[in-house]
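Case study 2.
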Amino acid sequence: MMSLGNTLVVVANDGGVYGADVVNRVVQPVFQFGGAKIGFNPQDRFMMSLGNTLVVVTNDGSVYGADVVGSGSGRFLAPVQRFGGAKIGFNQQDRFMVSLGKTLVVITSGGHVFGSEVKSTPTGASLGIAAGGQHKPLGPISERELLPVFEFDGARIGFNPEDRFMMSLGNTFVVVTGDGDVFGSEVTGRSLSPVGVHAITVDLINVICRDTESIHSSDKFALAGSIFTGQENQGVYFPTMRINDHEERNLGRSYHFISDLPSVGISLMGWDLDENDSWKENEADIKKGIGAIALAVAAVPGWGTTASAVISGVSKAVIDTIDQFNEWDKNDKLLDYNEVVTLTADVPNVDNWINHPIDFSHGDFSGYSSWDYTITMRINCRWQPTLS
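Prediction:
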Protein backbone atom coordinates (compact mmCIF):
# COMPACT_ATOMS: atom_id res chain seq x y z
CA MET A 1 0.00 0.00 0.00
CA MET A 2 1.20 3.53 -0.76
CA SER A 3 -0.01 7.05 -1.46
CA LEU A 4 -0.09 8.80 -4.81
CA GLY A 5 -0.79 12.45 -4.14
CA ASN A 6 -4.13 12.50 -2.30
CA THR A 7 -4.96 8.94 -3.31
CA LEU A 8 -4.44 5.81 -1.26
CA VAL A 9 -3.31 2.98 -3.54
CA VAL A 10 -3.32 -0.75 -2.95
CA VAL A 11 -1.79 -3.34 -5.26
CA ALA A 12 -3.32 -6.82 -5.25
CA ASN A 13 -1.46 -10.13 -5.59
CA ASP A 14 -2.57 -10.41 -9.20
CA GLY A 15 -1.21 -6.96 -10.08
CA GLY A 16 -4.57 -5.19 -10.06
CA VAL A 17 -4.34 -1.64 -8.71
CA TYR A 18 -7.07 0.05 -6.69
CA GLY A 19 -7.36 3.56 -5.30
CA ALA A 20 -9.44 5.78 -3.06
CA ASP A 21 -9.13 9.57 -3.04
CA VAL A 22 -8.98 11.34 0.31
CA VAL A 23 -11.02 14.56 0.38
CA ASN A 24 -11.09 16.61 3.60
CA ARG A 25 -9.86 13.53 5.45
CA VAL A 26 -12.77 11.46 4.14
CA VAL A 27 -11.92 8.37 2.11
CA GLN A 28 -13.93 8.31 -1.12
CA PRO A 29 -15.25 5.13 -2.86
CA VAL A 30 -12.62 2.67 -4.08
CA PHE A 31 -12.06 2.44 -7.85
CA GLN A 32 -9.85 0.21 -9.99
CA PHE A 33 -7.12 1.66 -12.16
CA GLY A 34 -7.31 0.55 -15.75
CA GLY A 35 -4.38 -0.36 -17.97
CA ALA A 36 -1.32 -2.38 -17.06
CA LYS A 37 -0.80 -4.61 -14.06
CA ILE A 38 2.23 -4.33 -11.77
CA GLY A 39 3.82 -5.96 -8.72
CA PHE A 40 2.44 -9.47 -9.30
CA ASN A 41 5.65 -11.41 -9.98
CA PRO A 42 7.14 -13.62 -7.22
CA GLN A 43 10.45 -11.76 -7.47
CA ASP A 44 8.85 -8.35 -6.83
CA ARG A 45 10.21 -7.24 -3.46
CA PHE A 46 9.45 -3.54 -2.84
CA MET A 47 6.68 -1.26 -4.08
CA MET A 48 6.43 2.53 -3.85
CA SER A 49 5.31 5.63 -5.71
CA LEU A 50 7.70 8.10 -7.31
CA GLY A 51 5.84 11.23 -8.31
CA ASN A 52 3.06 9.99 -10.65
CA THR A 53 4.71 6.62 -11.19
CA LEU A 54 4.17 3.31 -9.42
CA VAL A 55 7.55 1.61 -8.99
CA VAL A 56 8.43 -2.00 -8.24
CA VAL A 57 11.90 -3.26 -7.27
CA THR A 58 12.74 -6.92 -7.74
CA ASN A 59 14.97 -9.26 -5.75
CA ASP A 60 17.89 -8.69 -8.11
CA GLY A 61 17.66 -4.87 -7.85
CA SER A 62 15.94 -4.26 -11.18
CA VAL A 63 13.49 -1.36 -11.18
CA TYR A 64 10.27 -1.09 -13.17
CA GLY A 65 7.66 1.66 -13.31
CA ALA A 66 4.22 2.46 -14.70
CA ASP A 67 3.04 6.05 -15.04
CA VAL A 68 -0.48 6.86 -13.85
CA VAL A 69 -2.38 8.91 -16.41
CA GLY A 70 -5.91 10.26 -16.67
CA SER A 71 -8.06 11.68 -13.91
CA GLY A 72 -10.83 10.69 -11.53
CA SER A 73 -12.01 7.11 -11.62
CA GLY A 74 -10.77 6.90 -15.23
CA ARG A 75 -7.13 6.76 -14.22
CA PHE A 76 -5.06 3.95 -15.66
CA LEU A 77 -1.51 2.61 -15.68
CA ALA A 78 0.62 3.12 -18.77
CA PRO A 79 2.69 0.12 -19.93
CA VAL A 80 5.37 -0.93 -17.48
CA GLN A 81 8.90 0.09 -18.45
CA ARG A 82 12.25 -0.97 -17.07
CA PHE A 83 14.49 1.72 -15.60
CA GLY A 84 18.07 1.76 -16.81
CA GLY A 85 21.21 2.49 -14.85
CA ALA A 86 22.08 1.29 -11.36
CA LYS A 87 20.41 -1.46 -9.36
CA ILE A 88 19.12 -1.00 -5.82
CA GLY A 89 17.36 -2.93 -3.06
CA PHE A 90 18.86 -6.35 -3.88
CA ASN A 91 20.96 -6.96 -0.77
CA GLN A 92 19.72 -9.37 1.87
CA GLN A 93 20.05 -6.70 4.58
CA ASP A 94 17.84 -4.22 2.69
CA ARG A 95 14.79 -3.87 4.94
CA PHE A 96 12.65 -0.93 3.74
CA MET A 97 12.32 1.07 0.53
CA VAL A 98 10.69 4.47 0.08
CA SER A 99 10.96 7.41 -2.28
CA LEU A 100 12.09 10.91 -1.38
CA GLY A 101 11.40 13.42 -4.12
CA LYS A 102 13.06 11.95 -7.23
CA THR A 103 15.23 9.54 -5.23
CA LEU A 104 14.63 5.86 -4.50
CA VAL A 105 15.81 5.13 -0.97
CA VAL A 106 16.67 1.83 0.71
CA ILE A 107 17.09 1.40 4.48
CA THR A 108 19.11 -1.57 5.71
CA SER A 109 18.57 -3.67 8.80
CA GLY A 110 21.51 -1.83 10.34
CA GLY A 111 19.80 1.54 9.86
CA HIS A 112 22.06 2.72 7.04
CA VAL A 113 20.33 4.68 4.28
CA PHE A 114 21.22 4.59 0.58
CA GLY A 115 19.68 6.41 -2.35
CA SER A 116 19.67 6.61 -6.13
CA GLU A 117 18.31 9.61 -7.98
CA VAL A 118 16.06 8.83 -10.93
CA LYS A 119 16.88 10.75 -14.09
CA SER A 120 13.99 11.25 -16.50
CA THR A 121 14.68 11.97 -20.18
CA PRO A 122 11.73 12.79 -22.51
CA THR A 123 11.67 10.65 -25.67
CA GLY A 124 9.46 13.04 -27.65
CA ALA A 125 6.78 10.36 -27.94
CA SER A 126 3.38 10.58 -26.27
CA LEU A 127 1.05 8.08 -24.72
CA GLY A 128 -2.32 7.46 -26.43
CA ILE A 129 -5.07 9.77 -27.60
CA ALA A 130 -7.75 11.05 -25.22
CA ALA A 131 -11.27 9.73 -25.68
CA GLY A 132 -14.12 11.84 -27.00
CA GLY A 133 -12.48 12.74 -30.29
CA GLN A 134 -10.15 15.30 -28.69
CA HIS A 135 -7.09 13.77 -30.41
CA LYS A 136 -5.00 14.94 -27.48
CA PRO A 137 -1.99 12.98 -26.16
CA LEU A 138 -2.50 11.69 -22.61
CA GLY A 139 1.07 12.25 -21.55
CA PRO A 140 4.72 12.28 -22.65
CA ILE A 141 6.82 9.14 -22.57
CA SER A 142 10.17 9.42 -20.77
CA GLU A 143 13.08 7.08 -20.26
CA ARG A 144 14.13 6.57 -16.63
CA GLU A 145 17.64 5.89 -15.41
CA LEU A 146 18.93 5.26 -11.90
CA LEU A 147 22.08 7.25 -11.14
CA PRO A 148 24.86 5.65 -9.04
CA VAL A 149 23.82 4.68 -5.52
CA PHE A 150 25.10 6.89 -2.69
CA GLU A 151 24.94 6.64 1.10
CA PHE A 152 23.24 9.27 3.25
CA ASP A 153 25.32 10.42 6.20
CA GLY A 154 24.15 11.44 9.66
CA ALA A 155 21.75 9.44 11.83
CA ARG A 156 20.58 5.86 11.32
CA ILE A 157 16.92 4.88 11.25
CA GLY A 158 14.72 1.80 10.98
CA PHE A 159 17.20 -0.64 12.57
CA ASN A 160 15.31 -1.62 15.72
CA PRO A 161 13.53 -5.01 15.72
CA GLU A 162 10.28 -3.29 16.74
CA ASP A 163 10.32 -0.96 13.70
CA ARG A 164 7.37 -2.03 11.55
CA PHE A 165 6.60 0.57 8.85
CA MET A 166 8.77 3.09 6.99
CA MET A 167 7.74 6.00 4.78
CA SER A 168 8.67 9.51 3.77
CA LEU A 169 6.68 12.58 4.80
CA GLY A 170 7.89 15.60 2.89
CA ASN A 171 11.61 15.76 3.71
CA THR A 172 11.33 13.46 6.72
CA PHE A 173 11.84 9.72 6.99
CA VAL A 174 9.23 8.32 9.37
CA VAL A 175 9.29 4.95 11.13
CA VAL A 176 6.36 3.43 13.04
CA THR A 177 7.05 0.77 15.66
CA GLY A 178 4.98 -2.26 16.56
CA ASP A 179 3.42 -0.45 19.53
CA GLY A 180 2.46 2.60 17.43
CA ASP A 181 5.23 5.02 18.43
CA VAL A 182 6.32 7.29 15.57
CA PHE A 183 9.86 8.58 15.01
CA GLY A 184 11.19 10.91 12.36
CA SER A 185 14.48 12.02 10.86
CA GLU A 186 14.55 15.16 8.74
CA VAL A 187 16.70 15.00 5.60
CA THR A 188 18.84 18.00 4.64
CA GLY A 189 20.71 17.46 1.40
CA ARG A 190 22.04 13.94 1.85
CA SER A 191 22.22 13.97 5.64
CA LEU A 192 19.76 12.60 8.22
CA SER A 193 19.14 14.58 11.38
CA PRO A 194 19.10 12.65 14.67
CA VAL A 195 15.96 10.61 15.24
CA GLY A 196 14.42 12.49 18.16
CA VAL A 197 16.16 14.60 20.78
CA HIS A 198 17.93 13.82 24.04
CA ALA A 199 17.01 15.48 27.32
CA ILE A 200 20.24 15.56 29.33
CA THR A 201 20.64 16.45 33.01
CA VAL A 202 23.98 16.87 34.80
CA ASP A 203 23.88 16.99 38.61
CA LEU A 204 26.92 18.31 40.45
CA ILE A 205 26.37 16.80 43.90
CA ASN A 206 29.31 17.52 46.18
CA VAL A 207 33.08 17.88 46.64
CA ILE A 208 34.86 15.32 48.81
CA CYS A 209 38.35 16.06 50.19
CA ARG A 210 40.54 13.26 51.48
CA ASP A 211 43.77 15.26 51.53
CA THR A 212 44.12 19.05 51.21
CA GLU A 213 46.79 20.73 49.12
CA SER A 214 47.62 23.04 52.02
CA ILE A 215 49.81 21.44 54.69
CA HIS A 216 48.94 23.46 57.78
CA SER A 217 45.41 24.67 57.02
CA SER A 218 42.26 23.94 55.10
CA ASP A 219 42.05 24.58 51.36
CA LYS A 220 40.20 27.56 49.95
CA PHE A 221 38.65 25.61 47.06
CA ALA A 222 37.25 27.37 43.98
CA LEU A 223 35.40 25.64 41.14
CA ALA A 224 34.46 26.98 37.68
CA GLY A 225 33.92 25.70 34.15
CA SER A 226 31.28 24.91 31.58
CA ILE A 227 28.86 22.09 30.80
CA PHE A 228 27.74 22.00 27.18
CA THR A 229 26.29 20.14 24.21
CA GLY A 230 26.69 21.08 20.57
CA GLN A 231 23.90 23.67 20.79
CA GLU A 232 23.77 24.85 24.42
CA ASN A 233 26.19 25.65 27.22
CA GLN A 234 25.90 26.73 30.83
CA GLY A 235 28.59 28.37 32.90
CA VAL A 236 29.77 26.84 36.17
CA TYR A 237 30.95 29.24 38.89
CA PHE A 238 30.84 28.57 42.64
CA PRO A 239 31.82 30.73 45.59
CA THR A 240 34.95 29.50 47.36
CA MET A 241 34.51 26.85 50.02
CA ARG A 242 36.73 26.10 52.99
CA ILE A 243 37.40 22.37 53.15
CA ASN A 244 39.70 20.17 55.20
CA ASP A 245 40.83 16.55 55.19
CA HIS A 246 37.94 14.05 55.27
CA GLU A 247 35.30 16.71 54.68
CA GLU A 248 32.77 17.27 51.94
CA ARG A 249 30.91 20.32 50.70
CA ASN A 250 27.54 20.36 48.95
CA LEU A 251 27.33 21.69 45.38
CA GLY A 252 23.67 20.94 44.65
CA ARG A 253 23.45 22.26 41.09
CA SER A 254 21.63 20.75 38.11
CA TYR A 255 22.16 21.63 34.45
CA HIS A 256 19.56 20.73 31.81
CA PHE A 257 19.94 20.48 28.03
CA ILE A 258 18.07 19.36 24.92
CA SER A 259 20.54 17.85 22.47
CA ASP A 260 20.51 16.14 19.08
CA LEU A 261 23.26 13.78 20.22
CA PRO A 262 23.43 11.60 23.36
CA SER A 263 26.60 13.24 24.67
CA VAL A 264 27.62 16.14 26.90
CA GLY A 265 30.86 18.06 27.29
CA ILE A 266 32.24 18.80 30.76
CA SER A 267 35.05 21.26 31.42
CA LEU A 268 35.76 21.85 35.12
CA MET A 269 38.70 23.52 36.82
CA GLY A 270 39.42 23.70 40.53
CA TRP A 271 41.98 25.69 42.53
CA ASP A 272 43.27 26.10 46.05
CA LEU A 273 43.38 29.88 46.27
CA ASP A 274 46.02 31.77 48.17
CA GLU A 275 44.84 33.95 51.02
CA ASN A 276 45.51 37.13 49.07
CA ASP A 277 43.56 36.02 46.00
CA SER A 278 40.27 37.75 45.26
CA TRP A 279 37.36 35.60 44.07
CA LYS A 280 33.94 37.11 43.45
CA GLU A 281 31.60 35.70 46.07
CA ASN A 282 28.29 37.58 46.12
CA GLU A 283 25.25 36.26 44.32
CA ALA A 284 25.07 39.04 41.73
CA ASP A 285 28.70 38.55 40.69
CA ILE A 286 28.27 34.79 40.55
CA LYS A 287 25.36 35.19 38.11
CA LYS A 288 27.48 37.57 36.01
CA GLY A 289 30.30 35.06 35.99
CA ILE A 290 28.02 32.23 34.89
CA GLY A 291 26.62 34.35 32.06
CA ALA A 292 30.05 35.59 30.97
CA ILE A 293 31.39 32.03 30.78
CA ALA A 294 28.42 30.97 28.66
CA LEU A 295 29.03 33.83 26.21
CA ALA A 296 32.74 33.04 25.99
CA VAL A 297 32.14 29.34 25.29
CA ALA A 298 29.59 30.21 22.57
CA ALA A 299 32.38 32.17 20.83
CA VAL A 300 34.77 29.19 20.69
CA PRO A 301 35.57 28.25 17.06
CA GLY A 302 33.37 25.36 15.94
CA TRP A 303 30.54 26.26 18.30
CA GLY A 304 27.12 25.09 17.08
CA THR A 305 28.36 21.73 15.78
CA THR A 306 29.16 19.11 18.43
CA ALA A 307 30.62 19.10 21.94
CA SER A 308 33.64 17.18 20.64
CA ALA A 309 34.40 19.93 18.13
CA VAL A 310 34.82 22.62 20.80
CA ILE A 311 36.08 20.74 23.86
CA SER A 312 39.70 21.76 23.27
CA GLY A 313 38.84 25.48 23.33
CA VAL A 314 36.39 25.59 26.21
CA SER A 315 38.86 25.58 29.14
CA LYS A 316 40.79 28.55 27.72
CA ALA A 317 37.53 30.46 27.26
CA VAL A 318 36.67 29.77 30.91
CA ILE A 319 40.10 30.86 32.19
CA ASP A 320 40.05 34.05 30.13
CA THR A 321 36.64 34.91 31.59
CA ILE A 322 37.68 34.16 35.18
CA ASP A 323 40.70 36.42 34.71
CA GLN A 324 38.39 39.33 33.97
CA PHE A 325 36.45 38.76 37.19
CA ASN A 326 39.11 38.02 39.76
CA GLU A 327 42.51 39.10 41.00
CA TRP A 328 44.41 35.88 41.51
CA ASP A 329 47.60 34.03 40.73
CA LYS A 330 46.20 30.64 39.58
CA ASN A 331 49.26 28.93 41.04
CA ASP A 332 47.57 25.97 42.70
CA LYS A 333 45.37 24.37 40.09
CA LEU A 334 44.07 21.11 41.49
CA LEU A 335 41.68 20.10 38.69
CA ASP A 336 41.71 20.50 34.92
CA TYR A 337 39.05 18.12 33.60
CA ASN A 338 37.86 18.19 29.98
CA GLU A 339 35.83 15.34 28.56
CA VAL A 340 32.91 14.59 26.26
CA VAL A 341 30.78 11.92 27.91
CA THR A 342 28.92 9.60 25.54
CA LEU A 343 25.58 8.52 26.98
CA THR A 344 23.22 5.62 26.31
CA ALA A 345 19.51 6.06 25.59
CA ASP A 346 18.16 3.22 23.45
CA VAL A 347 14.57 3.10 24.75
CA PRO A 348 12.32 6.14 24.22
CA ASN A 349 11.12 8.18 27.21
CA VAL A 350 13.15 6.22 29.78
CA ASP A 351 15.65 7.81 32.20
CA ASN A 352 19.22 6.49 32.01
CA TRP A 353 21.09 7.77 35.08
CA ILE A 354 24.81 7.06 35.47
CA ASN A 355 27.23 8.03 38.23
CA HIS A 356 30.18 9.97 36.88
CA PRO A 357 32.64 10.85 39.68
CA ILE A 358 35.69 12.97 38.89
CA ASP A 359 38.71 11.94 40.96
CA PHE A 360 41.69 14.29 41.03
CA SER A 361 44.80 13.87 43.10
CA HIS A 362 48.52 14.51 43.12
CA GLY A 363 51.35 13.34 45.30
CA ASP A 364 55.06 13.93 45.68
CA PHE A 365 57.67 12.33 47.89
CA SER A 366 57.79 15.28 50.27
CA GLY A 367 54.04 15.64 50.68
CA TYR A 368 54.48 19.39 50.32
CA SER A 369 52.20 19.66 47.28
CA SER A 370 49.71 16.82 47.28
CA TRP A 371 45.94 16.53 47.27
CA ASP A 372 43.17 13.99 46.86
CA TYR A 373 39.63 15.05 45.90
CA THR A 374 36.47 13.75 44.22
CA ILE A 375 33.59 15.65 42.66
CA THR A 376 30.53 13.41 42.70
CA MET A 377 28.30 13.82 39.69
CA ARG A 378 25.49 11.97 37.99
CA ILE A 379 24.19 12.33 34.45
CA ASN A 380 20.86 11.39 32.90
CA CYS A 381 19.96 11.00 29.23
CA ARG A 382 16.34 10.58 28.13
CA TRP A 383 15.62 9.94 24.46
CA GLN A 384 12.46 11.74 23.28
CA PRO A 385 11.06 11.00 19.81
CA THR A 386 10.63 13.82 17.34
CA LEU A 387 7.09 12.74 16.43
CA SER A 388 4.49 11.20 18.69
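The chain is about 10% helix and 50% strand.
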